Every structure is written in C-alpha cells, then in structure tokens.
Amino acid sequence: MAEVLLFHHALGQTTGFLAFAERLRRAGHTVHTPDLYDGRVFDSIDDGVAFARETGFEKIIERGVASADGLADGLVYCGFSLGVLSAQKLAQTRAGARGALLLHGCVPVRMFGPAWPADVPVQIHAMDADPWFVDEGDLDAARELVASAAKATLFLYPGSGHLFADSSRPDYDAAAAALLIQRVLDFLATA
After folding, report:
1. CB within 8 Å of 20: residues ≥ 6 apart
2. How many domains does the chain contain in total?
3. In what order do the strands lie in the sheet with 99-103?
C-alpha cells in the first residue's frame, strides 16, 4: 500500500476533498491531508484564490513542502488544483518520491527544476473544457510534462467542471470522478 501526501484545492479542506482522502484510506492507503489554510474553507474558487494570493502562493507552497517534514521518503504526492503546486514541487525536489497525482492542475516543470525526475511516475487528470485548466496554461504544461517524462499520463475527461472529483462541489461529475478514482487506485497499487 502507498503512503500519500494529499493537498487540498483553493477552497480548503471541503467535505468532498476529505471524502476523496477517505476513499483512498478505505482502499488501504495511508493518507496525510495537511491543512494549508489553517481551517479556512471558501464557497467560491475566486474567494479561495484571493485568500491564497493574499497569503502568498509561495507561502502556501512552502507550507505544503514543510508538511512532508518528519514523513518517510517514498511518498506519493497528490494535489487538487492549487494543491498541485506543493505536490509537484515535492515530487520534483524531494528525494524518494514514488509518484505524483496532479488533479485539476499542472504547472510547467521548470518552475521547480530543469526536468521531471526520470524515476517518478505521474498522472494528470482534468476536464478537457475546464477553463481553469485549459485557459490558464495548465493543459500546455501537462502536455509538455507528458512529452518529456518517461512515465507520465494525461487523462482528459469530457466536460468543463474544474473540481469534478470533489463531491461537495456543484461541478462534481460522478461518472468522471469514479473513473478518476479507479485510475488513481490503479496507480497507487503499483507505486
């Protein structure tokens, strides 16, 4: 079984995010869910992003990186949207990463280093018409990562929902989320 460090999205630790973590635990995985917002939860992505901007994106990322202190090597790093920043940085820079799961987001590899680590498998999941993913450059970053990494897969689901795997959100898509979770569980079984 895998040990996962799972980072929340810009809304904070919503009930849907926590349910996702619990689903991984029920499958036998150890899942850590650090709260990078100190208990704050937002109703809209715009409000959550505004809070992250006010706090400082770098500070949010560093909180995520610091949450790995004291944990063993050999983690799988997983992030929802904004949480991808911490997950991707750790996967690229912390020794011993077993994998990365980038859900609803991806940033250019060069943000955290010259190349994706050759021995770290990665999956990226998003909807093909999600404006946050497509229009903000995440799709381009995901395609570049997949083209340059030895073990990388991009899964695009039909639709425009951003946080479609968070069951507490209006853009939740049960069918797409079920496929995503199955792919995530398959990935964790081999990580």
Report:
1. 6, 80, 165, 166, 167, 181
2. 1
3. 30-32, 3-7, 76-80, 99-103, 122-127, 152-157
137: alpha, beta or left, given left = phi > 0 and alpha = psi -120 to 50? left
Range of 45's domain? Answer: 3-190
Q: Which residues contact 46 (CB under 8 A, 6 or more apart)?
A: none
Going residue by residue through the chain (191 aa), what tens digit of pLDDT does each one get?
999 999 999 999 999 999 999 999 999 999 999 999 999 999 999 999 999 999 999 999 999 999 999 999 999 999 999 999 999 999 999 999 999 999 999 999 999 999 999 999 999 999 999 999 999 999 999 999 999 999 999 999 999 999 999 999 999 999 999 999 999 999 999 99
